Amino acid sequence: MTSLPKTNDLVLERAGSVLTIWFNRVEAKNSLSGEMVAELDAVLDAVQGDRDIRTLVIRGKGGIFCAGGDIKGFRSGSQGGEQSEEDVARGNREFGDVMIKLNEQPQTVIMLVEGAAIGGGLGLCCVGDVTIVTRDARFRLSETSLGIPPAQIAPFVTERVGLTQARRLMLTGARFKGAEAVQYGIGHILAEDADDLEAKCAEVLKQISACAPGANAVTKAIVFEALRKPRGAALDFAARGFARCMLSEEGREGIKAFIEKRPPAWAED
After folding, report:
1. Which of 23, 50, 97, 116 could anchor a disulfide with 2, C-beta 3.0 to 4.6 Å?
2. Rounded mean pLDDT, 205-230
3. What pLDDT is attached to residue 174?
């Protein structure tokens, strides 16, 4: 079993093939401190190669998902005047690396969003494979109202909602709630309340449990290579992934189970 890193700003809960990662800075509305981002990065690295962990569920303690970047931390870091432009840029870019990693994590990533997803919190919603939001959850890209751009999340938000909506949401700081978030494509599934959020998550976890973890990991890689490579090269990459899966123990078991009309060994109840 994978050894998980010790964390202070995250609470980690393992239940079978599901690892739930809780943001746990309730007093700061789960805003993203440098320490929290570093801990998330370490957890993603720790489980990256573990196919026994099929799903990562990311959510926030205290009934709030994430209020974005730690603005108080920004302020305390800039007051002394010791930070150069290069220092600030480097720190900002580190969050972008975590966004890339989370976006392409081999496990299926579920975001459970209630309370609020502001700024970077909204950006995190956009890298979930399945993002479930409550109807009353509040969303906003607030960065430009603070005099800064939504720098590291901008590519992911744009990829998720499209160019024209991204421009509108970023340049106006528009406020909206869960139903609109689903309409824009930020969320996939709308839950009526906190209880329904749990029920919707359970439904999705049941669906994932029927999918082969290795095949899911290869499928995610194929999806992203299709965005990066010319069509022929992307299809070559997909063919190699298909062959590896087909000839793997997991693939052989899946085909045998299909022929024998039974659940495969890796399917969970």
Report:
1. 50
2. 96
3. 97
**Assigned domain for 5 exists:** no
* 148-180 per-position pLDDT tens digit: 999 999 999 999 999 999 999 999 999 999 999
**How many structural domains is the chain composed of?**
2
pTM score, whole prediction: 0.94
Decide: 76 and 40 in contact? Cβ < 8 Å.
no
Within this chain, do residues 166 and 66 fall inside the same structural domain, yes or no? yes
Mean of pLDDT over the chain: 95
Q: Which of 187, 153, 128 is nearest to 32 (CA)?
A: 153
| Position 3 in a domain | no
Instruction: Assess whether 157 and 230 both reside in one domain.
Output: no
Say whether 193 sits in a helix, a strand or coil.
coil
Q: What is the pLDDT of residues 112-154, one digit of tens each?
A: 999 999 999 999 999 999 999 999 999 999 999 999 999 999 9
Q: Using an 8 Å Cβ cutoff, are 126 and 159 in contact?
A: yes
Q: Are 104 and 49 in contact (CB under 8 A)?
A: no
Which residues contact residue 238 at a Cβ distance below 8 angstroms, ignoring those fewer than 6 apart? Answer: 222, 225, 226
CATH no. for residue 37? 3.90.226.10
Q: Is the pLDDT of residue 77 over 80?
A: no
59 and 180 assigned to the same domain: yes
Burial of 71 (0-12, 13-18, 19+ CB in 10 A): middle
Residue with tokens 């494509």: 185
- Residues 142 and 218 occupy one common structural domain: no
The answer to whether residue 1 sits within a structural domain is: no
Determine contact, residues 65/114, Cβ cutoff 8 Å: yes
The phi and psi torsions of 180 (rounded to 5 degrees) equal -70, -35
Residues 181 and 224 in one domain: no
